[in-house]
Amino acid sequence: MEKISLNKLKPGDQGKIVNIFLQGASGRRLMDLGFIPGNEFTVVRNAPLVDPVELEIKDSNISIRHEEARYIEVVVNG
C-alpha cells in the first residue's frame, strides 16, 4: 500500500493513519483529536486551496489546516 500525505485526498476517500510528522504542541494536539497511527478516517471535505480539511475519525468530525494535513502520512483503502 502506498503511503501519501493526508492533504492529497479527496472527499469520500477512506484510509488509515500511519504516522504524524509533527512534534511538540502541534503533534500532541493532533493526537488528542484522534490522529493516532492505526485509526481509520473518512475525508468529509477538502477544499484545494483553502482550509480546512474535514475528516470523520471515530464518529467525530474534525477539521484541521492543510499545513497540518501535509504532515500526516496515511494509506488509502481500496
TrEMBL record:
Q: Name one GO molecular function term.
A: transition metal ion binding
**Does Signal show up as a keyword for this record?**
no
* Domain spans labelled Ferrous iron transporter FeoA-like: 4-76
List, alphabetically, the Gene3D superfamilies matched: 2.30.30.90
- The record lists the organism as Halanaerobium salsuginis
Q: Which SUPFAM superfamilies match?
A: C-terminal domain of transcriptional repressors
Protein name as catalogued: Ferrous iron transport protein A
Pfam families for this protein: FeoA (PF04023)
> Does Iron appear among the keywords?
yes
Keywords noted in UniProt: Iron
